């Protein structure tokens, strides 16, 4: 193999934004749910309202959804890479661990081959350094950093508003199906009935096609369940980011803070266990430095290597955390997948929140 072929073999592709193929599974699910709920709203829910209410029911969600599409697509389209990465456009090389302990050393990324900002982190999924890195969002299939963070927040807020409106309308129509059968003042299919017609003769539609009442009610129930789950997901996500903004921190900073806190808990528990064990089972030797088996009862050697992505080498993390610590971390952070381990850390966090190369 020629030298040029060897160098080419070391080059790894990187992602520019959320439009790069292949799409993530969560991105496909998000767009599918968004489209289905939107189409059902305009072709099934709104036509069931009385005619005088329908213009408002069309206009308000249409404006919110249009705004959501604009900010969503903008957040996806922005390349959040570090400015030096964009300017130099060097090929991304596979890191040689025999030469480099960390991906970023002294503010120089050994994969992107450029000097980067202190707040930049190298995303494993996108294979590039992201300026003011916050997290890798699988629902947008791109990293969220300083350049697209505000667009990301606008996307989450507009999604919560749109889904809350649509789900609320679904609940209202489900309830009024039973309460409006006699008065016939809210649902247009009831209003269209003659004085002598039974409510069972009302014409309810899905996708503008007449369906049995049971099918229409089932659609409303499924719509509400999907909407409730989406609101719970996006609402919780929005709550976390409001907390982060208030405390002037990123998702990545929060993950590190929780890991440090969990490390302290584990270290404290281990020391406590050693003290109790030494007290219950004293060694025959009365020497104050010898308590039983000195090899097995010696205090744990907890090292504090630096965070691989912190160019100032000021963040300290424990090299390994046990299953209890992993449980604490996962309770503190909302996500669906585990993070690749940080330097010396064989545990995982959540990949939808943070996904960095070490």
Automatic annotation (TrEMBL):
Coiled-coil residue windows: none
UniProt remark on domains: The DHHC domain is required for palmitoyltransferase activity.
Family per similarity comment: Belongs to the DHHC palmitoyltransferase family.
Bilayer disposition of the protein: Multi-pass membrane protein
One of the record's GO cellular component terms: Golgi apparatus
Major enzyme class: transferase
Location in or out of the cell: Membrane
EC number: 2.3.1.225
Region (Disordered): 275-317
PANTHER family: PALMITOYLTRANSFERASE, ZINC FINGER DHHC DOMAIN CONTAINING PROTEIN
Name of this chain's protein: Palmitoyltransferase
UniProt GO MF annotations: protein-cysteine S-palmitoyltransferase activity
Species in which this protein is naturally found: Dreissena polymorpha
Any single biological process term in GO: protein targeting to membrane
Pfam families: DHHC (PF01529)
Keywords annotated in UniProt: Acyltransferase, Membrane, Transferase, Transmembrane, Transmembrane helix
The UniProt record lists the keyword Endoplasmic reticulum: no
Membrane-spanning segments: 28-49, 56-78, 151-178, 215-243
Domain Palmitoyltransferase DHHC: 104-255
Flavoprotein among keywords: no
Biased composition (Polar residues): 286-317
Reactions listed under catalytic activity: L-cysteinyl-[protein] + hexadecanoyl-CoA = S-hexadecanoyl-L-cysteinyl-[protein] + CoA
């Amino acid at each position: 193999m020629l030298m040029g072929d060897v160098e080419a073999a070391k080059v790894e592709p990187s992602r520019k934004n959320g439009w790069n193929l292949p799409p993530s599974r969560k991105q496909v699910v998000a767009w599918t749910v968004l489209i289905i709920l939107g189409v059902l709203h305009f072709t099934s829910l709104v036509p069931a309202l009385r005619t005088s209410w329908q213009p408002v029911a069309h206009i308000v969600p249409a404006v919110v959804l249009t705004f959501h599409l604009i900010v969503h697509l903008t957040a996806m389209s922005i390349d959040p890479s570090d400015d030096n990465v964009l300017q130099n456009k060097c090929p991304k090389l596979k890191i040689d661990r025999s030469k480099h302990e960390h991906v970023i050393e002294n503010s120089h990324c050994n994969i992107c081959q450029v000097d980067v900002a202190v707040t930049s982190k190298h995303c494993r999924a996108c294979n590039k350094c992201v300026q003011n890195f916050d997290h890798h969002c699988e629902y947008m299939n791109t990293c969220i950093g300083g350049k697209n963070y505000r667009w990301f927040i606008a996307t989450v807020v507009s999604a919560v508003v749109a889904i809350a409106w649509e789900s609320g309308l679904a609940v209202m129509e489900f309830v009024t199906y039973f309460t409006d059968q006699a008065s016939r003042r809210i649902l247009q299919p009831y209003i269209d009935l003659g004085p002598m017609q039974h409510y069972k003769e009302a014409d309810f539609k899905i996708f503008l096609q007449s369906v049995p009442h049971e099918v229409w009610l089932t659609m409303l129930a499924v719509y509400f369940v999907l909407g409730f789950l989406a609101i719970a997901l996006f609402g919780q996500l929005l709550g976390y980011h409001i907390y982060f903004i208030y405390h002037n921190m990123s998702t990545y900073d929060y993950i590190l803070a929780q890991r440090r806190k969990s490390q302290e808990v584990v270290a404290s528990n281990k020391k406590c266990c050693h003290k109790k064990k030494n007290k219950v089972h004293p060694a025959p030797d009365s020497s104050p430095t010898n308590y039983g088996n000195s090899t097995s009862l010696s205090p744990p050697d907890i090292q504090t290597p630096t965070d691989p992505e912190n160019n100032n080498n000021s963040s300290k993390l424990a090299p390994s955390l046990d299953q209890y610590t992993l449980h604490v971390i996962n309770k503190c952070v909302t996500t669906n997948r585990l993070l690749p381990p940080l330097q010396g850390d064989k545990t995982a966090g959540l990949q939808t929140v943070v996904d960095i190369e070490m």
